[in-house]
Design brief:
With 758 residues, this protein is α/β, with parallel strands linked by helices. Helix content is 37%, strand content 17%.
């Protein structure tokens, strides 16, 4: 805890030996000393006359928050010229209006031309007002700010340089935020020189070079350069093929075409890149990002410091493999080639993968053993997650069987005609199935998920990006290697990519131009986080698996305990395991009820009592904290209902629309339940555990969806397809079908081609 002005705040432990820049974005959260450079386009309004007050207030708030975490923040700001221009224009207009009124004797004024204002005069008039504004804003957060004006000479004169350095260090020691700007009122025009040729040579021509010089002089960890573009593009922003560069490495300048500079300010992007590379060479990490976009400017600085993928990160460490963006592009290209293969060729790839799972069993289990040993040594995983992480010979055999089912059922999945219509004579329309595009599947502690999902993507002709948990790294690497080996038999090795970079899941969810569908496989918290983080990309899945079994008055004694035991105890960590047991009130204190309780005790299932169930008991189990709980372990809730209608209402109120079951011999009651429960899977006299792609005969599943759009329930090949329309005509134009045209619409349904069901 540190205190300043009697206000305590939490500090974060930050220490790092300066000399080398951070290699990865994730390390930026360890930055202690940070320079934030605010470009003219960030600080000024769109009319270049006056300040963008709301944007500036947001930036001050973020800087204050980081300062109060114990970081040392410095700001290099523009804006004095724009602020001064606003003040001088106002003074000139006022002066002209007074003179004109005195001269003409009339209050009505004519249009008055404003002379061109000299930048140095504007800077002189604006510096004091700009600083007063900063002081007022920082005061709201009990932070003191101090102004420092510098020129190029201050860095070339050794005594002045030492004085500047000492002043800045003293201000930082006192928890004061230095606000630095070039002294534009007296600064001479920049002279041509040979700057940027070494660590000790850079001319302060603009605030970009000033920020870089200051960052190196003060041994800062991070320089954030905010401008009016998202970052560095490989060609001028706005051009058709312009792509944002996520990470820029020294030597990449040849691959970039620079455009014009921003609407205001001294330097363009080329100046920023030169300054950034100079700072990087001096040991300071650099990020160039957009500080003007209304959707991100309110958290752009804090996002950068947290290591999120914002703007362009400058790094000296080039990764060995491709970036995730490159992997997504490879997956799309590979997926299109995959979709163009014959169905028999795609099936052949899947059959080959199934064979490799059994042929390479020993190597797979050895890799999995490494993961299990590391997880146990670190003690990070709970027992249910360790079970999910574990592979066995029987699991691999089951996987191989499932993959062969997928191969056999995928013969006509892509390109299947599902509708044919004769629009008019010689004009026929077809609707055919096509792949969705590029899928991103994120999974935790489930290495067996990798070959399942890969097989479904191959069968449906989709490109695939896989992001597995690091706890299964060895298993995933081995299984992905086998998948690519199988894909290689038809030259589509790149269609399935395993993301091994340090990309956070949240960053992957922002790649809306590269990814078409996200499928999370893991905990409810993982799914919720992905649904929240996904920006413009649909997410298929379910956040919770709160499955119910309702025991009706007409339930069979023989069936009840078997179905409940299987639903709860066969695999309690599964998303389709029973979590809430609903029992008809008339069954309380009957032999059947006693059998249910005895069976749960034998299986060591911890029981939580619902409010109504607890009211019937003198000594009840612990009352449930919430009826909307997914335990994922040998625990369940028991609640009492008065009728099948009340059971349905309870499921709709507290369930997750996943899988719900009724146990009864009364067909009328069962049909009411089946028709009225609005869940993805609704069963009669069968375990909740049947809610599974393999058990449904889909071969495998990419997940279970509780969404009401597109796929619902266990999602197999069909759920990974969309459609497109093919229209074949012969010189047809819409004008021929007008009121006085020569053609008429027929809209006749045509028979579909015979499906291959072999």
């Amino acid at each position: 805890i540190r205190c300043w002005s009697n206000i305590p705040f939490i500090t974060v432990p930050l220490s790092r030996a300066h000399g080398k820049s951070f290699a990865h974005r994730s390390e930026l959260r360890h930055a202690k000393r940070i320079v934030v450079k605010l470009g003219s386009a960030v600080v000024t309004r769109g009319d270049e006359c006056g300040l963008a007050l709301g944007r500036l207030a947001s930036i001050v708030e973020q800087v204050s928050m980081l300062q109060n975490q114990g970081r040392e923040m410095m700001i290099v700001t523009s804006g004095a010229v724009a602020f001064g221009k606003q003040r001088l224009r106002h003074e000139i207009l006022l002066s002209q209006s007074v003179r004109q009124a005195l001269h003409s004797g009339q209050s009505q004024l004519k249009d008055m031309a404003i002379p061109v204002l000299e930048a140095r005069a504007c800077a002189a008039a604006g510096q004091s007002g700009l600083m007063a504004l900063y002081e007022a804003m920082f005061t709201q957060y009990s932070i003191c700010a101090a102004q420092i004006l510098v020129t190029n000479l201050d860095f070339h004169d050794e005594q002045k340089r030492r004085n500047l350095n000492g002043t800045l260090h003293e201000l930082l020691r006192m928890n004061i935020v230095p606000i630095i700007n070039t002294n534009d009122a007296v600064v001479p025009p920049p002279e041509p020189n040979s700057d940027l040729q070494g660590v000790n040579v850079i001319s302060v021509k603009d605030n970009d070079s000033l920020a870089a010089r200051l960052a190196v002089e003060m041994k800062t960890d991070l320089l954030i350069v905010l401008s009016d573009v998202e970052g560095l593009f490989d060609s001028p922003p706005g051009s058709d093929d312009a792509k944002l560069i996520d990470i820029f490495y020294p030597g990449d300048q040849q691959s970039v075409t620079f455009g014009t500079k921003s609407r205001v300010g001294m330097g363009g992007m080329e100046a920023k890149v030169k300054a950034a590379l100079w700072a990087l060479q001096g040991g300071t990490s650099v990020v160039i990002a957009n500080g003007t976009h209304p959707k991100i400017s309110g958290h752009v600085i804090t996002d950068i410091v947290e290591g999120k993928k914002v703007g362009t990160f400058f790094s000296e460490v080039k990764p060995a493999g491709p970036t995730v963006e490159q992997q997504a592009e490879m997956a799309r290209a590979g997926g299109r080639t995959l979709a163009a293969l014959q169905p028999e060729q795609r099936a052949e790839i899947i059959y080959r993968l199934a064979d490799l799972l059994t042929d390479q069993r020993e190597e797979i289990l050895l890799a999995n053993k490494k993961d299990l040993e590391e997880a146990e040594n670190k003690g990070r995983l709970a027992l249910p997650l360790l079970k999910r992480l574990s592979l066995s010979t029987s699991k691999l055999n089951s996987l191989a069987i499932g993959l062969r089912q997928i191969a056999a059922s995928s013969q006509d999945s892509v390109g299947r005609v599902i509708r044919r219509t004769r629009i008019a004579k010689d004009l026929e329309l077809e609707q055919v199935t096509v792949p969705i595009g590029v899928l991103l599947v994120i999974f935790e502690s489930r290495p067996d998920c990798l070959p399942q999902v890969s097989a479904l993507a191959i069968a449906s002709g989709n490109g695939l990006l896989l992001k597995g948990g690091k706890e299964a790294a060895h298993s995933n690497q081995m299984l992905h290697h086998l998948t690519q080996e199988a894909l290689s038999i038809h030259g589509v090795r790149d269609a399935v990519q395993l993301v091994n970079t340090r990309e956070e899941v949240e960053d992957l969810c922002r790649l809306d131009k590269l990814i078409d569908l996200i499928i999370p496989r893991g905990s409810s918290q993982l799914v919720r986080n992905i649904q929240k983080a996904a920006k413009g990309i649909p997410v298929m899945g379910h956040s919770e698996g709160i499955c119910h079994v309702y025991v009706d008055t007409d339930a069979s004694v023989e069936k009840v305990t078997r179905i409940i035991r299987d639903s709860k105890c066969e695999y309690p960590a599964a998303c389709n395991a029973l979590e809430t047991l609903l029992i008809h009130r008339d069954l309380l204190r009957t032999p059947l009820f006693d059998q249910i309780i005895d069976m749960l005790r034998v299986e060591q299932v911890k029981i939580h009592a619902g409010p109504k169930f607890a009211s019937y008991l003198t000594f009840s189990p612990s009352e449930v904290k919430s009826l909307r709980t997914e335990y994922g372990d040998l625990e369940c809730c028991i609640e009492v209902v008065d009728s099948v209608q009340e059971a349905v209402e309870h499921i709709h109120k507290y369930g997750s629309s996943h899988t719900d079951v009724i146990i009864t011999e009364n067909e009328k009651t069962a049909e009411f339940f089946l028709q009225h429960v609005d869940s993805a899977c609704v069963f009669w006299n069968a375990s909740t555990r049947f809610s599974d792609g393999y058990r449904f005969g889909l071969g495998a599943e990419v997940g279970i969806s509780t969404s009401r759009i597109h796929a619902r329930g266990p999602v197999g090949i069909e759920g990974l397809l969309t459609t497109k329309w093919l229209l074949r005509g012969d010189n047809h134009v819409v004008s021929d079908f007008s009121e006085h045209g020569s053609m008429k619409y027929l809209h006749e349904s045509l028979p579909l081609p015979q499906r291959n069901v072999s």
